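TA notes. Do not distribute before section.
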Amino acid sequence: MERNRQGIDLPENRTRSALLAADVDGQLVGRASIRFELNDFLAFRGGHIRYDVISAFRRKGYATDILRHSIVIARNEGVTSLLVTCDDSDVGSTKVIERCGGVLETTAVDEWDTFPSLLDLKTQIPLPDRRGSQMDTLLENWKRRSNDQKYDR
């Protein structure tokens, strides 16, 4: 995994990336794939971050925490503006992305999807180049909530 993060010996269709696992008391609740660069496919469909929460743990704030932590990791790896996508019918993910600063950029028909009538919502999350303001607040809130709720991300 460290080789992926550093971009060493990656296949042509891969980009530098990291994998984040979220657990509560040793129980896996979700994960995130964080890409530090985008290829043509990721620029259209996958974006910089793809996160999932196991269904039994949804609607408990884990998705927001996973995305916030992923944003911090991406920023620390030099990403200055994040692209995050979700299906237009995924109201939960739309709210999570918006809570984390996402602003709808565009909608697009996903030509790679089995159901090409579905739209992808493409959102941008701007990240400041320097420490301060919103990113420090996100990180501080994440740390505070981690301590209050006693679960690891």
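Switch to the second chain here.
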Amino acid sequence: MRQFFIALFAILWTSSPLFAQDDPLPDSVAEPYVAYEEAMRAQNYDAASVSAENAWRASHSARIDPSLIGILAANYAELAQELGNYDDAYDAWRASTEVAVEIGVSAEEQARRWHYASFSAFMDGEMEDAWQASDTVSDLIPEIDTSLMEEGFLLSHYVLAAKANQSDERSLRARGFAVAGIAYLEEANQTDGRNYADFHLIAGLGSIQAEDWVEAALALNMAEGLFSQTGATRDAAISGALNEFSTASMDDEEEWEYVLQLQSSSFPSDTYWDDDTIENQRLIAYKPYPMIEYQWVRRRMSGTADIRYDIGPDGRTQNVQLIDSDLRRPVTSSLIETVESWRFAPQNSENVPFPVVEKTAYFEFSDGYLSRDNQSDGPMPIYRVEPNYPISALERGYQGVSVVMFDLSEAGHPINIEVLFSSPEGAFETSSIRAVEDWRYEALQEGDAPETRENLTTRFTFQMRN
């Protein structure tokens, strides 16, 4: 984060113009200002910063033109910011902007100074000051001629405003800046960088705050795909966990809407492609997995079930029937209800009705858990338990997600377990770690690459159900 903003600021930083003064400056101002110029020529920026601050502060008690006070403040602000003294830089930039407003300098110059003030506050961790300064920039943007601004100014503003608002838990406001940033980058055909992924993550977080689950899941799926492309494993895992939370919060209609939009996005999911076609078109399928009562998990239930069903003209399942099963009736009843909720649509087409198709669903349980065809690559646990929902979280009504990273020992035991992300903070970390500690994997076999057993990630969704 810090390196990114320093690099970005280097694009925008232009030295303040030296001022001309017909009347002699008071010695209290002139002497430190001369020392500042000499230090700058010698590239002694620490000394230049001290002299620039002395000149600016002395100017407050001297009777000189306010515009010169503003320039002296900007001189010091630039150096303090470049040297990492962000607290002092913010104070100086704010003083400079207040003078700029007072004397009526151009909207472009006011926007620049407020933007630098926002940047300094952000880097100092003062998020409220940062987003307040960014809001002022936003108010000025309709008045400015963007052709007069430095290249990248608007992008820098959107990045800073989105991250400052998000960091201060103003997710809805942050979403607005993220959406504007996405549009900016798409228009500029700059969709392969980190900013594009960050904007989608922030937009997704804002949509979660708004309980707009479809928009949240679409944005977070995009963020997960973009982060994965750039090797940002941690951010991809966080985006994926938040995506799962969003989809788990949807009702059937919302999830069907999400599935249809997802499969035409840049990162469609293999989960929603069916293995059949209708009229030579691949099928998009919404096939949620069954919710099995915990008593059957605890009893380590094993067995299979075959269920026949038709895909009706409207894409919904009909005539759902149990064909064969060695599972208990409560379990098969849950499986039938699940299949009855499935929906299908032809790829790239909304031409319904389509011919009725007869199909069969196969379910297999092992040690209480449903085997899934869409398991990810990499080691899979031979024994897995889900985390307990913390009593304190239940009592407080907390819902959320956690992302856990771990390595595997040669014996197949999870080690070096670390929570990469958990929300709400402090609610689910302990429960997640304790669950992963109990997992077991196959022992390392001769010829296996050890690196495939390092930095594994998993994620948990904690959601209360009626």
